[in-house]
Amino acid sequence: GGVPRPMQVPLELGPPASAAQAPAPAPADAAVRVDPQLRQEVSAFLDSRRQMVEAMAGALACGDRGQLRTVAHRAAGGLALFGFQWAAWQSRGISARAAEGDLQVLREDIERLREHLQAGQVQ
Questions:
Q1: How far is residue 6's CA from residue 3's CA, in Å, rounded to a whole number?
Q2: Which of 22, 100, 115, 119 counts the most CB atoms within 10 A of its CB?
Q3: 11-44 pLDDT, tens digit each
């Protein structure tokens, strides 16, 4: 037998950005079900996430991939909390690919996220 492999891979040695991402948990155009207790906060929340998307686009334009990763990671957490599963998944993907991802692909990913948050239907 060989040396037992550690179960946890250190972050810096994680899978490359090209590693397959888990499939989306919901279609991009699916209506978002928001917890009724959070519903009154959704409008302000979405405004803040849209600002984060613009920050992602700005970080990418400046070549600041570390900032892109940080903002996308932060965006994903809140989006998941509010039930925006596709947007959270998309943000996680942007975060995962921020360091080494293709610029054009990242730009398109950010644009899809922007469109989703503009057109998103909330139930």
A1: 9
A2: 115
A3: 444 444 444 567 888 888 888 888 888 888 999 9
Evaluate whether 91 touches 70 at the Cβ level (below 8 Å): no
Contact 44, 34 (CB under 8 A): no
Q: Which residues lie across from 44 on neighbouring strands?
A: none
Match 């040695």 to its residue by tokens.
13
| Best CA proximity match to 70, nearest among 60, 80, 61 | 60
pLDDT over 90 percentage in the chain? 62
- Name 35's Cβ contacts closer than 8 Å, sequence gap at least 6: 82, 83
Q: How far is CA 28 from the centre of its chain?
A: 13
H-state helical runs in 63-100: 65-82, 85-97
Phi/psi at 122 (5° precision): -110, 135
In angstroms, the CA 58 to CA 68 distance is 8
